[in-house]
Amino acid sequence: MEHVSNLILIDSDSRRRASISHALAASSIHVEPFENIDELANAWPRSGVIMIHDEAGSIPDLIEKMAADGEWYPIIAFSEYLAPRRIVEAVLDGAIDYVAWPLDSEELNEALARAVDKSDASGSTKLREVMARSRLDRLTKREREVLDGVASGLSNRLIGEKLAISPRTVEIHRANMLNKLGANHTSEAIRIAIEAAMVN
């Protein structure tokens, strides 16, 4: 297990933020406290694990921000009350772990090490999905239909027949689609579609 010494703390409650920082000051964990995601985005640390207070929309907002800025950190959500439904939602949103505060520095160290291990194992799947989705959002409805056809292994002629357009028009949509996705090859476009969970 890799030892984590940098904890990026995001919590809008200044008293709790101060008490967490104070509680961990005696341990080997260095805490970088931030009031909110925007404050963190102004000064992304070189490395670390993010521990964010679980509030409505906080984890999806954080992941969107990381995707927009091309940053990636494992995320641990925390709150004072462990509600099973919130834990499930937080993990589905992209958190790697969920802890109850208060917890001692040894428990936190274990949670941080677990987060790094899980993050290394799963890569930044959620981040890649968000980034791929934002790329797909640039496509027109017709370009998405062409991408769908390409991902299904259809030729330009068959895509054209399916969409009732000429193969030449399919070619134009295909070129525009690759361009908007920033993909050099069709295989890259398909990978982006898979990462965006558009293709099963």
From TrEMBL:
GO biological process, one term: phosphorelay signal transduction system
InterPro entries: CheY-like_superfamily, Sig_transdc_resp-reg_C-effctor, Sig_transdc_resp-reg_receiver, Tscrpt_reg_LuxR_C, WH-like_DNA-bd_sf
Residue span(s) of domain Response regulatory: 6-116
GO molecular function: DNA binding
Keyword terms of this UniProt record: DNA-binding, Transcription, Transcription regulation
A Pfam family matched in the record: GerE
Cross-referenced CDD domains: LuxR_C_like
HTH luxR-type domain span: 132-197
Recorded coiled-coil stretches: none
Protein name stated in the entry: FixJ family two-component response regulator
Taxonomic lineage of the native organism: Bacteria, Pseudomonadati, Pseudomonadota, Alphaproteobacteria, Sphingomonadales
